[in-house]
Amino acid sequence: MIGSAASAERLRLEPLSVSSPTLRDGSPLPSDYSCRGSVGNPPLRWSGVPGDAKSIAIVVDNNDSQTGAEVHWVVFDIHPGTNELTESTIPVGAVEGGTTNGKVGYAPPCRPQENYRFTVYALDRKVGLAKGAPLSETLKSIADRTIAWGRLTATHIE
Length: 158
Fold this sequence. Notes:
Layout: H1 4-10, E1 17-19, E2 44-47, E3 55-62, E4 70-78, E5 84-85, E6 95-96, E7 116-123, H2 135-145, E8 146-154
Antiparallel strand pairs: 1-2, 2-5, 3-4, 3-7, 4-6, 7-8
């Protein structure tokens, strides 16, 4: 989802390890975390954050939509010592940006046959934008600051 030059650079970075107690990489997204459910965001865990990271960001998107990519959630300025996100919450001090639909917060995925990516980024400094910041500005800021990243992908919605 983030620009191609930044994407090429990220491919050379050491990846973070991303997991979830309720979601497995390459498996379906449980419907509780989709627009058919009422739970909100799934829990995520990550490890391998570089010692020089100053913040963490999370982007949830799909990249194979016939109508174009959609960003379902952006959370940034997460304290770098944080290593998990519990179900339906954001860490204290974290900020949520706008999504593709313009809303702030987790916009549950709805297209049952698409892949949904839960990407965790380690950043060399805070994003420093306000809650609800425009998506394009937020994604550019995350791309410009990324020093490591990892991803968990759901293949479709249960």
